[in-house]
Design goal:
The chain is an alpha/beta fold. The protein contains 13 helices and 27 strands.
């Protein structure tokens, strides 16, 4: 089998319906020819193998075609988050030693003048002409990038983004594990709106197309446009993150029919009980599952195969064949049922680009330490508990925001909650919460505080509660807690915003 990840798609793969071009259909054979033409154009450039080529644009068929063409031509794809500030984008271009940037026209001014560019949103023929006329800049180091297919940069929520080095063989292995769960699944139409600079959007697009199903792409997330696309394009398979579905629930969805939606995969963040129940009302015929994967370890870590229809949708499942997992600090004893998850698998990253110290902290003796705390039940089924680096101490007690959020979201009248720490003079830090009430709910901050004390540990109840219409989304469509933190201060009492 060809291990080049860019050769994943063929004339027998799935088709793409491009929401950026009035839902134009691009057949699998046409997409494969397009990728081939672009790959030949890239191969003709005066570039050494494994040169880095960046993509700066919104979701489109052209983006996918060039993404696969870069890898098929033997180069390394570097998807760029167009929501990052210019300073950060410029850092990534230098860090990855990018030789060429393919960008949408609205982003042209964001690329430094010394970096060659081509128009990512140009028609196919025009893009080929641009490639043949391009004077690229040579990368300084190519030998160490041999075997890589892409570099995905982290969101940079805790400093500068880190480039995650991912290899062809590892990505092909991970996708093969996902395809094993889709044997015989054909004729599905999946809606993908998670940005292609993020593993969620790239993985589900690759998975659906490689399995012979088709995808509908939207250039960006809009709740109303997403709901309309489900209906007009008869989408049967939805993918996304919890924040997206919470925003869908606040739209006028009741006037639409969604009985044709049979599968929903939610990833990148935990799915709360309250949001799950809302989604069940919206999509009564759908099987809803909460997936887990990391950029560093790969997208296929757990499988729900064999769990049965009554298994909790938020349970992640059991390890896929070929993956080893352990919890805690190297302890694999049967009695250990909760701890930080470490993974050993063929899909692990090679490391962080230009960061040997952080690579050594994360990759230890062939194991990747995820920083995610997991719980394993007696049947070997794993569930997400929280991020180890999110944990904070309140008066000597360890608090995990995800656990408090799950508690608050069980309260009647709460649709969504985000919990974060606030500095406190005597307790060190205390939990505070920003809450989205269910439509029409009269729930007050005092009532929610009392409910959380009655149904959970008193030390974990939020000392301040702010109500808002919706939780802000970050660049990867997850809740932006840094934006929420600016709404709290030590002197503010519980109130609504």
């Amino acid at each position: 089998m060809n291990s080049n990840f860019g050769s994943l798609l063929s004339a027998g793969s799935g088709a793409v319906i491009d929401g950026s071009r009035q839902f134009r259909l691009v057949t699998a054979s046409a997409l494969d020819r397009w990728i081939d033409e672009l790959a030949r154009g890239l191969a003709a450039l005066p570039l050494e193998p494994a040169s880095r080529i960046a993509l700066l644009g919104e979701n489109s068929t052209g983006y996918l075609a060039l993404y696969f063409a870069i890898m098929r031509a033997g180069h390394v794809a570097v998807p760029l988050n167009h929501r990052l500030p210019d300073e950060t984008l410029h850092f990534i271009l230098d860090d990855a030693e990018v030789s060429l940037v393919a960008r949408d026209r609205p982003f042209a001014a964001r690329v430094p003048r010394q970096v060659p560019t081509i128009g990512l949103d140009a028609p196919a023929g025009e893009l080929l002409d641009q490639l043949s006329a391009t004077a690229v800049r040579h990368a300084a180091d190519n030998a160490s990038f041999a075997g890589l297919c892409k570099i995905l940069y982290t969101s940079g929520s805790t400093g500068r983004p880190k480039g995650v080095l991912l290899a062809h063989e590892g990505m092909r292995w991970a996708l093969a594990r996902g395809l094993e769960d889709l044997v015989g699944v054909r004729g599905e139409t999946g809606l993908v709106v998670a940005p292609f600079y993020h593993k969620n959007g790239l993985y589900f697009s690759s998975l659906l197309l490689a399995s012979g199903n088709r995808i509908v792409t939207l250039p960006r997330f809009s709740a109303s446009a997403y709901l309309d696309a489900i209906v007009t394009q008869r989408c049967s398979w939805l993918t996304g993150v919890p924040t997206m579905f919470a925003l869908l629930a606040r739209e006028d969805w009741q006037r639409r029919e969604f009985d044709h939606v049979t599968r929903i995969n939610v990833g990148s963040a935990p799915l709360s009980d309250s949001l799950l129940e809302t989604m069940r009302r919206m999509f009564p015929a759908a099987s809803i599952t909460n997936g887990y994967g990391t950029t560093e370890a790969g997208p296929a870590i757990f499988t729900r195969a064999g769990l049965g229809p009554d298994a909790c949708p938020r349970a992640l499942g059991k390890p896929v064949p070929g993956i080893e997992l352990r919890l805690g600090d190297g302890d694999t004893a049967v009695g250990v049922d909760e701890g930080i998850l470490s993974v050993r698998a063929p899909s692990l990253m090679r490391g962080y680009l230009n960061l040997p110290g952080q690579t050594a902290q994360t990759l230890r003796d062939g194991w990747l330490v995820t920083g995610d705390i997991m719980r394993r039940d007696a049947e070997g089924v794993y569930s997400f508990v929280g991020r180890a680096d999110d944990m904070f101490v309140c008066g000597g007690e360890n608090i995990y925001p995800a656990a408090v959020e799950s508690l608050l979201e069980r309260c009647p009248g709460v649709e969504q909650a985000a919990v974060l720490p606030l500095a406190h003079e005597t307790k060190g830090q205390v939990p505070v919460a920003c809450v989205v009430r269910a439509p029409g709910s009269p729930l007050s901050a005092e009532e929610l505080k009392a409910w959380s004390i009655a149904h959970g540990p008193a030390y974990a109840h939020p000392r301040q509660i702010l109500f808002c219409e919706a939780l802000p989304m970050g660049t990867t469509l997850k809740v932006d807690k840094r934006a929420l933190a600016t709404r709290f201060d030590d002197g503010r009492s519980s109130s609504a915003v």
